[in-house]
């Protein structure tokens, strides 16, 4: 059994983030989250914070480091949607999604990288989406935010790759979560028809890939985009 690591998963109160946090807890790691509301999985240290606010993120990291030590694995998972057709999408719709999904991830990574550089090791894993490279009508803002994470991860890889730090992207397709459950039944059926696997993913199937990227086995995987989408986005 390897030493427990200090792991931070943002937005671990629901969906994919929750499944990821549960897997790290099961693996024996010290798991914390920065979240806004909701119940957390057992064994997860919850610090209330807002990824839209740098001071809030700094304070949350300080609390987590005091409890668990410097963050060795960061999973940037917190995200929002504000779907709307292009012509009806407001500046606020666009800016809010970018602020949480892109700038929020940046704020967390910037803070985590300080400790990782000192440790000369670290794992940064961004949770993107098949939509980031595949595109989706009504999601110009969300798709832009999720594709931006690829450029961020690859730039971090070039900057920090020589210090034992990896930055990778997991791009889930449609996953059985509360978010997809809200889609109309006919839309869900259309999406399933487009997925070669013929079904949505379980959150745990995404979590397993994240766990691999955080492991020693993935030490030489850097700047990669790993699709977990049942074949939906092939070639993207």
UniProtKB/TrEMBL annotation:
MF terms in GO: oxidoreductase activity, acting on the CH-OH group of donors, NAD or NADP as acceptor
SMART domains, alphabetized: PKS_KR
Alphabetized Pfam families for the sequence: adh_short_C2
Ranges where the Ketoreductase domain occurs: 5-178
Keywords assigned by UniProt, alphabetized: Oxidoreductase
One GO term (biological process): fatty acid elongation
Family per similarity comment: Belongs to the short-chain dehydrogenases/reductases (SDR) family.
NCBIfam families with a match to the protein in the record: PRK12826.1-2 (NF009466)
Name the UniProt record assigns to this protein: SDR family oxidoreductase
């Amino acid at each position: 059994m390897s030493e427990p690591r200090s792991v931070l998963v943002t937005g671990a109160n629901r969906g994919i983030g929750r499944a990821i946090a549960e897997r790290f807890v099961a693996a024996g790691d010290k798991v914390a989250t920065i979240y806004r509301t909701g119940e957390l999985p057992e064994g997860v240290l919850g610090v209330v914070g807002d990824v839209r606010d740098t001071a809030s993120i700094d304070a949350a990291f300080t609390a987590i480091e005091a409890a668990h030590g410097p963050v060795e694995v960061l999973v940037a998972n917190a995200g929002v949607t504000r779907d709307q057709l292009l012509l009806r999408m407001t500046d606020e719709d666009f800016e809010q999604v970018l602020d949480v999904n892109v700038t929020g991830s940046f704020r967390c990574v910037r803070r985590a990288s300080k400790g990782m550089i000192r440790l000369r090791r670290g794992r940064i894993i961004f949770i993107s989406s098949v939509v980031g490279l595949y595109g989706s009508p009504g999601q110009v803002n969300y798709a832009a935010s999720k594709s931006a994470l690829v450029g961020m991860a690859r730039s971090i890889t070039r900057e920090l790759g020589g210090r034992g730090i990896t930055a990778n992207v997991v791009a889930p397709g449609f996953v059985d979560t509360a978010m997809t459950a809200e889609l109309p039944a006919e839309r869900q059926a259309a999406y399933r028809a487009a997925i070669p696997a013929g079904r949505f993913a379980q959150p745990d199937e995404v979590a397993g890939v994240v766990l691999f990227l955080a492991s020693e086995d993935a030490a030489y995987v850097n700047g990669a985009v790993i699709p977990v989408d049942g074949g939906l986005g092939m070639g993207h």
